[in-house]
Amino acid sequence: MSEEKRNGNAKTYGKNSVAAGSIGDWATFIIKSLRLLETLPLLVAVAVGVYSVLTWPGGPQSQYVLFYVLLGAGFVLSVVYAAQGKNYWTLLALALGCSLLGLGSLGYTAHNGEVPVEIAVQGAQPLNGSQADALTLVMSAPAAEDVRDRLRIALKISDDDPNTATCLHKTTATLKAITPGIAPSEFRIAADSVVDFDLGGQRGAVSVAFVLHTEPNCVMRLSQVRGTLHNS
Prior knowledge:
12 strands; five-stranded antiparallel beta sheet; alpha+beta
């Protein structure tokens, strides 16, 4: 005689029989799991997007192109995957992979990307001919997360009075590192130039002397100074 078992409202007969109720519970669990799996890539893409907004490191937008491409691809693939209603594992892996690689790209840029910094100009202007006193360019100590290996400085020297004959073609300048350990220790530059210093592990403030070279009757001005910390 077969043995009767009860599982909820389901009955089974026999020693090794399985209750229909148990099968139904497992089926419901599997269906819910698959539905959650369908939305998982989209949830990951949205989470990465929200995280990037909350922790955006700043700097030139051009250095985030790879992040935008990867996150955009992850979002599109997630929507396509969810719309299929089937478990295409390759599509699932691609959607998750793009979003997570985008997150990695953002993290890499946050620690290695370019960081604009303010360069203070200390000293009197305008600069009168070859007798002008030196100016001092000072970058304050950056935040710990903004420390980089190199400092790029873009400088522009202009005529103090644009209505007079220009002296730009007669003008150069010398930049001399004041902070120890910076290389090279000296640059000779034209009126519109970009220089790049290796900070030699310097993590604090950086000072550089600016000395103008022009003819005695020329009155000039250091009109623009932009600084950028970077690693390469």
